[in-house]
Amino acid sequence: MQKDLFDPTSEWRGVRSAAPKSSFLERYRLSMRLDQMIVVCISLLVSSALVFGVGVEHGRKMERVRAKQPKAEGLIRRVIPKAETVKVTVDTKKENQDNAIKATQIAIQEISVAAATADTKSIDVVEKGKYTIQIVTYTNENDAEKQIKKLESLGHKGFVIPSGRYRQVCMNRFNDKDQARTTLRQLKAQGMIPPDAYVRPITR
Q1: What is the C-alpha separation between 195 and 184, in angstroms, rounded?
Q2: What span, in angstroms and rounded, lies between the C-alpha atoms of 94 and 100?
Q3: CATH superfamily of 129-201
Q4: Sheet of strand 198-201, all strands in order from the earlier edge strand to the far edge
């Protein structure tokens, strides 16, 4: 009998034991894994949706910024020409002021030259005589020059003795005062000089 139990050809050897059935815990573990996978998938989807939403919002903000940028550039473009116009206006005013200052300086130089010339004439007169006949006084240089030319046309030597803003027109030079008085009386008698003309020293 023991031989039959251990006989490899016995029919009992060919009978296989049935596979053990899965327990409730194993099925529960499998379902838990499936639930976890679903939760993970849902989490990924939610995360993707959030990322997408954030990206869309960021894109909208960038679009708004880009839409405002041309306005700002246009404002800058309008402001810059105005600033350049103001700068050009200021430069023009400064240039006009500089030109006015230069013109004033030139006028002062011309007046100085004219005064120096008048002083030179008076010095020349002093060197050539002690007395003269003063016939008229002007405040205008041109009037004095006209009177001198008139005297020269009559054969007399005229010149100007400056005194401040006045121009004293004189005629002829004399080393002797009596000679000057005699000539004065003759010229008054001829009506060539005004009655109030008088003899005076060239230098006082």
Answers
A1: 10
A2: 10
A3: Sporulation related repeat (3.30.70.1070)
A4: 158-163, 166-174, 131-138, 198-201
Of 193 and 81, the one with more pLDDT: 193
Q: Identify the pLDDT of residue 165.
A: 92
The sign of the dihedral angle between the CA atoms of 31, 33, 35, 41 is negative
In this structure, of 47-56, 90-99, 150-159, the range with the lowest mean pLDDT score is 90-99
Q: Which helix (H) or strand (E) holds 119?
A: helix 24-128
Cα separation, 38 vs 117, in Å, equals: 116
SS3 197: coil
Alpha carbon distances (Å) from 182 to 75, 125, 152, 155, 185: 91, 20, 20, 17, 5
For the chain, give the number of residues: 204
Q: Is the dihedral of CA 190, 193, 197, 201 positive or negative?
A: negative
Model pTM greater than 0.70?
Answer: no
Q: Which residue ranges make up each domain of the chain?
A: 129-201
- Where residue 164 falls (left for φ over 0; alpha for ψ -120 to 50; beta otherwise) is left
Residue 173: CB atoms within 10 Å: 19
Name the 3-class secondary structure at 174: strand
pLDDT number for residue 180: 95
Q: Which residues pair with 158 in a beta bridge?
A: 171
- Beta bridge partner(s), residue 171: 133, 158
